[in-house]
Amino acid sequence: MTLRSRLAVGLLTIAVILVGPLIFAIQSLERLHRDARDLRDREVNASSLLGRLREGMADLHRQELALLFSRDVASRDAMAMTIADVEGFADSLGSFGLESSARVISNAIREVAAAAPREYAAALQGQTKIADSISANHLVPALAKADSGVLVSERLLHARTQQRVNVAANNISDTVNLSIVALILALLIAGSVAFWLTRSISEPVLELRAGMRAVADGELNYHLNFPKHRADEFSQLAESFDEMTRQLSELDKLKAEFVSVASHELKTPINVMIGYLQLLEDGLYGKLTKQQKEVLATLVLQSNTLLRLVRQLLDVSRFEAGGGRLEPRHVDLPRLLIELEDTFRVLAIQREVQFRITHGDNLPDDVTWDPDRVNEVLGNLLANAFKFTPRGGTVELSVDGVDGSVSIEVADTGAGIPPDQLPRIFDKFYQADNQRDAASGGSGLGLAIAKQIVEAHGGTIQCESTPGVGTTFTIGLPIAARRRTSARQNATAAAL
Fold first, then answer.
1. Are 163 and 39 in a shared domain?
2. More confident position, 394 or 54
């Protein structure tokens, strides 16, 4: 399965799994909505109807008394209308599942409807005892029977409403619990799919990254730890990686051969030349004239310069080929700075340049560096600073501890470097246009070597300069530098 197909299938599976609980929740909400609507249409409306029925019964009680004492047509007609309304309300109760109570109330209202005209007629004729008897024996018991029917209906409706509310609450609770369980299961399954998908992609990516890091560290025989015959794009990347390492190995062999040839074929004849020049200088081949001595001195100077240039070029080549190994060991940093100060104090006096070393408050006493290489870097930077600083100027070396590392600054008040040339000052053989302000010439390899040494320690080096004002080199070095290891070992250590 290709990488694109795997991603599509995995994402589709995750989407389907996550949509399942959503569909279940929507269906549950619709069911709850139906229950709520039914509760509103039946119990709520029934409760409203009983309220109106209760008000009608209260009106009947008042109008029954008015019928005894007012004895007017208005009271009779009002009672007749109220009886009709209450009877209609009682009949409507049957549609809400309260048929039994509806019958009781309806029968009682019919008795009231039958006795009310007789009570009114007796009261109208002044037959008070007969009217009171009809009221006491017929109307009042009938109204009480109707009130009892209304009370029973209210109790039944309350019990039924309570039951339906409890059922709805239980349904809501069950829906919530089931939704949570479904969501958790969906998340677990989706997480498993995502983990499988991520692992199937991240493992070869991490392996490729470790391989690239190994190649960058010079381990050109690195082999990827996943099958190269996979049915996805990583198989093509693995083939490209193998082809790249093969070609880089061939180039590395050519470079190593060049370094070996340069080491033997250049250094050896130069050393021979210098040896014979020393023999001439010692007079082994006869006494030299003054003019011959001057020529000999020039030859010795140029031969030593050529030997130094070859050594610097070989140093750069070794670091670029991964052969410039460090030998980190514990270094007394304050003592290292004192030795540097002693070394360059004489040069400062000769050049009439003010030289000082500043120690920060957070400076560690002990670091793990390759002292010879660090001395080489700082010596090169300080030598350049003195070379470009005129008499009366200042050269300052500032050292301090910053966030688990050591910050080193070499600042001078010299000629400075043009801004457009700053990006190239660490290139091999590159020399800025300020060479005319230097006290002596250079090979253009010092800063390239310094950068290689600093980066081999795991540090950084930067330069800021303003023409006519001065230059500042800033170095950041970890307190404990380690020997280079392969990318495979780094990846294993990170995983552990």
1. yes
2. 394
273 and 182 fall within a common domain: no
Domain match, 49 and 118 both: yes
Our count of domains for the chain comes to 3
The pair of structure tokens assigned to 370 is 């390759």
Same domain, 341 and 302: no
Structural Rg of the chain based on CA atoms:
52
Condensed to tens digits (0 to 9), the pLDDT of residues 404-439 reads: 899 999 999 988 888 888 888 887 766 766 555 444
Domain extent at residue 416 = 329-478
User: Looking at the domain assignment, is residue 31 inside a domain?
Assistant: yes
pLDDT digit string, tens, across residues 284-339 = 778 888 888 888 888 888 887 777 777 766 666 666 555 556 788 899 999 999 98
Query: Residues 271, 363: one domain?
Result: no
For the segment 42-54, the average pLDDT, to the nearest whole number, is 78
Place of tokens 């109570």: 101
Residue 143's domain is classified under what CATH number? Answer: 1.20.120.1730
Starting at the edge strand that comes first in sequence, how are the strands of the sheet with 470-478 ordered? Answer: 354-359, 394-402, 405-412, 470-478, 460-466
Q: What mean pLDDT, rounded, does the chain reach?
A: 78
C-alpha angle 32-38-43 in degrees, rounded to nearest 5: 125
Under 8 Å between Cβ of 270 and 303: yes
Burial class from Cβ neighbours inside 10 Å (0-12, 13-18, 19+) for residue 266 reads: middle
